[in-house]
Amino acid sequence: MRYLLPFFIFFSFMLGDTPTFERMKLVNERLPAQQTPGEDQSVILNGSLSLENQEEVARVLFMLSRNISDEFAIGDGLSMVMYVMRFMAQIGEYEFVQKDLKALISSFENLLGEPFDPEVWMVVEQIRKLQFVRHKGKLAVKIFALDEETGVTVMMNTPGEPGSAMKEIEFVRLKHGSRISFSDAEDLKDHSKVKDLVKDRFKILGFIGLVEKDMNLIHPRLVDAIDLHLRREKDDLIKPLFIDFDDAFVRVHTSTLLKTIDFKFQDGVCIPGAKTIEGLPAPSFLLTAKSGLLKLKTTIDQ
Known about the structure:
Layout: H1 5-15, H2 19-30, E1 43-46, H3 54-66, H4 73-91, E2 93-97, H5 98-112, H6 118-124, E3 127-135, E4 138-145, E5 152-159, E6 166-184, H7 188-199, H8 212-215, E7 216-217, H9 220-230, E8 241-254, E9 260-270, E10 285-291, E11 294-299
Parallel strand pairs: 7-11
Antiparallel strand pairs: 1-2, 2-3, 3-4, 4-6, 5-6, 6-8, 8-9, 9-10, 10-11
């Protein structure tokens, strides 16, 4: 159920008749030039809000909702969140504050007749505002935390694979002001980059106590499926989505001399709908991260 949240939030913006949307327009109209709104107001930052290609957006979101598998629900849900934020950034440049995010979540809980998972509220409680902007020509969102020291932290406490030097993923943290940028995989050159992210393996220094398989955690189904997936007809393919991270990291406990390693997120790609030739789903969310000379590449296999 938690993965429907961004879907509903997005369409509340797209319809353009929610109280939050109207308040944003009114605040924007009343502010004199160069005046900054209060921290507790959602506001348009530049120009106006509009959405082009609504039919295509609706098609993609519908296909995304149908491609959330039971086996990889967390990773597929994260992919859907990334696409929704990409479309929300496409609407324009604006800030969306916590109280309005909470109001929307509560409204949708009432609409659905059941609460969202507590993890949703745990994350929202840490967010001061989301700022949708353009960054180096890309659509982007900046995340501002209520606690500037701890940022937005998602506790994982996920054990590593048996026999791996990676013993536990403790938490993921988005620092205050962290940014996520988005770009679509449009052509054959982009598709080649997607394949490289999936298939190319990072090399590492063996003396650290980690081996190559510890740093390359791509699910074999995605490796097997990627070529066939990218050859699908345009109408059957959701364009892969490239993601760039600034100021976000994951803390990992290991059995090596380094003990605890903070891997800073670098980039990644969402590849929803990929399936093996046997029809088995593959994970859709792939990330790369770095800590010093160490590089990590992984799919979210949950």
